[in-house]
Amino acid sequence: MTSYLVRRVAGALVILMIISAITFYLFYAVPRDPARAFCGKICQPETLALIRHNLGMDEPLFVQYWHWLVGIFAGREFVQFGSCPAPCLGYSFATQEPVFSAIVDRFPVTVSLTLGASVVILAFGILTGMIAAWKVGQPLDKIASSSSVIGASLQIYFVGPLLAFYLVDTMQLIPRPSYVPITENPLDWFTHLMLPWVVLSIIFTANYTRMTRSQMVEQLAEDYVRTARAKGMSSRSVFFRFAWRGAMIPILTIFGVDLATLLGGAIITEQTFSLHGIGELAVRAVQNTDLPMLLGVTIVGAAAIVLLNIVVDVLYAFIDPRVRLS
Amino acid sequence: MTFPSSTATDAAAESADTAGTAGSGSAVVGRSPGQLMWRRFRRDKTGVVSAIIVLAFFLIALLAPVIAALYGKDPYTTYGQNQPGLLNEFGYPIAPNGGVSGDFWFGLEPGLGRDVFTQLVYGIRTSLSIAVIVTVVSTIIGIAMGITSGYIGGKTDYVIGRVIDTLLAFPSQLFLIVFLPVVEAAFVLPEEETPVWLRYVSICVVLTVLGWATIARLLRAQVLSLRAREFVEAARVTGASPARVIFKELLPNLWTPIIIQATLALPLYVGAEAGLGFLGVGMTEPTPDWGRMFQVGANVYHSDVTYLLFPGVSMLIFVVAFNLLGDSIRDAFDPKTKR
């Protein structure tokens, strides 16, 4: 188990290195010169060179990348901004704030959003999928299946404002979505994030309903189910004690892959409800062409996905006793 | 051309046909797999209805200028600002339901006062054309990479495989918005305004680069299993060139997964392009864009929720129809698989 984890983490670090190198190269190889933006309208060549030096941009690209990489582990000094303690991802060109602390500030919002949505997706999607599989071919199954077709075709940026209009503006059933730290008031944290969770999970829930249903139907045709039934176990116990476990394994695999998409959905959900999370940070950085911020967000996003995938793989071992991590 | 996978279904369908027509005594008609697929598809009512809806959307996109000319308005004129009595002092339509009337079928855009109907028709044109281009190009790249990787194997397979793995591990939505300015910056100096065609091309490029890996991975696996089949081996032993094996033996057996994958991908690209527009990094003003209408809609829904309904409901109808069509095509191509 330990050696498995060590190997997976090492592999993850290699992937992150590759991603960061590619991203760094793509970002800094472009002719758009951030130093010019600092320089203002009337820009003397000497001033420009000085700013470039201060930003550390007068060195060859790979040296710059090396400095950036070292900065993450050991911190670095900027002539322009002063010292930046580890883990240092540089300073934003647009707001001059340290990239790392900007990301850390917004992290709880995005984590609350995606975690809450994951719970809704898995709980609700698997539940409806199992009900559909339990009542295969019956009206309940038909309702679940056809509503999942529509659910999967909905768009966050359409459902979000629409629900906000009817539930918040018109009926005033729930408070306007915003982020209240869970440490401040857990109840407010919950009620204010309810709508974003529902909206983000609608599309995914529909997919999980479909997958759980087909997986369950497949599992119920397996030999071990027939054996259990032949030995006199009731169909209810077979269904709820054996079959669902087998069905969960592929679902978990797909969930691991979907995490990246969920993060993408979180960006759009944050924008829909004006939640100040990582996604909103990324969108603003794109509009300002704020390269250090974009690089930081990309790396943190990729790191989160890679890490969560390892967590999902470890979870297998707990659900499926046949899986041995080695 | 060999078609090992379809012989069984061929025989089954033919025997069913002869059973049905035995009384009338007509001869057994040989049908190609394509004809069989078409016959199965025509019998699927949901599929036919969805196909008509999808076709209608493509026709709307193609005929946008004609529709606008017949309707007598264009998506650029700010009618609400030019004619008094249409927008109130806050820029919202005075008439109820977002200003829907005989003159403005889908109402007026709050603020600028442009015509929503032509905006939507032209917006569909922009978004659908991007989605079609990206689907076609990424499918072609995916086919080329997948077949190369699976057929040649060895080091080539390893390299392409790692590239595919890395691409699929990316949080693609994040990369989509992050790489757009980078692609543009490579062509435009910061002082210049980004031309519309460049934004259009960079959206296509970024979506394609992040999109081809899925189909490539699928086809690689298919080619790996096909390569070991007797008919491919036979072709190789009898001296067929790699090009002949690929185009005459492998490709005919790959059309089913390719078409299924492409029908799955197209609505996703429509959604992704619209997502870019919504986030404000897609097509720029004044080019009409389906996705940017959602951005406007999200800003004005407190006072004018009707505006949001037109792009929203039309996209919902399109995506549902396309997904159902995809399911029907899958059933028609491959009647053995059950949903």
UniProtKB/TrEMBL annotation, chain A:
Gene3D superfamilies xrefs: MetI-like (1.10.3720.10)
PROSITE patterns referenced in this protein's UniProt entry, alphabetically: ABC_TM1
ABC transmembrane type-1 domain segment(s): 107-316
Topological type in the membrane: Multi-pass membrane protein
Keyword check for Membrane: yes
InterPro entries recorded: BPD_transp_1_N, MetI-like, MetI-like_sf
Gene Ontology cellular-component annotations: plasma membrane
Keyword list, A-Z: Cell membrane, Membrane, Transmembrane, Transmembrane helix, Transport
Bilayer-crossing regions: 9-28, 115-137, 149-169, 189-209, 242-268, 293-319
Signal peptide: none
Intracellular or extracellular location(s): Cell membrane
This protein's record includes keyword Protein biosynthesis: no
Pfam families recorded: BPD_transp_1, BPD_transp_1_N
GO biological process, one term: transmembrane transport
Assigned protein family: Belongs to the binding-protein-dependent transport system permease family.
UniProt cross-references to PANTHER family, sorted A to Z: DIPEPTIDE TRANSPORT SYSTEM PERMEASE PROTEIN DPPB-RELATED
This protein's name: ABC transporter permease subunit
UniProt organism field: Microbispora catharanthi
TrEMBL record, chain B:
GO cellular component: plasma membrane
Protein's UniProt keywords contain Ion transport: no
InterPro entries: BP-dependent_transpt_permease, MetI-like, MetI-like_sf, OppC_N
Subcellular location: Cell membrane
Superkingdom as given in the UniProt entry: Bacteria
Residue stretches in coiled coil: none
Gene3D superfamilies recorded: MetI-like
Family: Belongs to the binding-protein-dependent transport system permease family.
Name this polypeptide is given: ABC transporter permease subunit
Taxon lineage: Bacteria, Bacillati, Actinomycetota, Actinomycetes, Streptosporangiales
